[in-house]
Prior knowledge:
Blueprint: E1 8-13, E2 20-25, E3 31-35, H1 37-41, H2 50-72, E4 79-89, E5 95-106, H3 112-125, H4 127-131, E6 138-144
Parallel strand pairs: 5-6
Antiparallel strand pairs: 1-2, 2-3, 4-5
Amino acid sequence: MAVTTRSASTVWTGDLASGSGETTFETSGIGTFPVTWRARTEAAEGKTSPEELIAAAHASCFSMALSNILKQAGHVADKLETSAAVDFDTSDGAKISAIRLTLKATIPGLEDAEFQKLALSAKEGCPVSAALAAVPSITLDASLT
């Protein structure tokens, strides 16, 4: 079995409310991005958050999973446009309360019923979906264009 490891790190200074940090994508080297509690719970103001990073991971993983499932079913997508919205709820503690995946797909020769079945299979089989299984609600809105 092959294992691939990817890494990132965060350096934080100060307390939660007034402190700040920087998250670095170490494996890819694509950059270092600022994070703050305010950016996480209020306005992003050019900073990222764990939830935005989760959204990026989920959207890309789902798209990869679906492209593989489509190929196994004899289809190739012209385009898969996936977005993920992650809700961070601080009303009773702090938790991720919901994730909404939205997919707009262009796949020649695929009927909607089969498309919906394959898209749901990708949502359920995506490794990031599995890692996020504790999230109370993960939904998928998939449409063919």
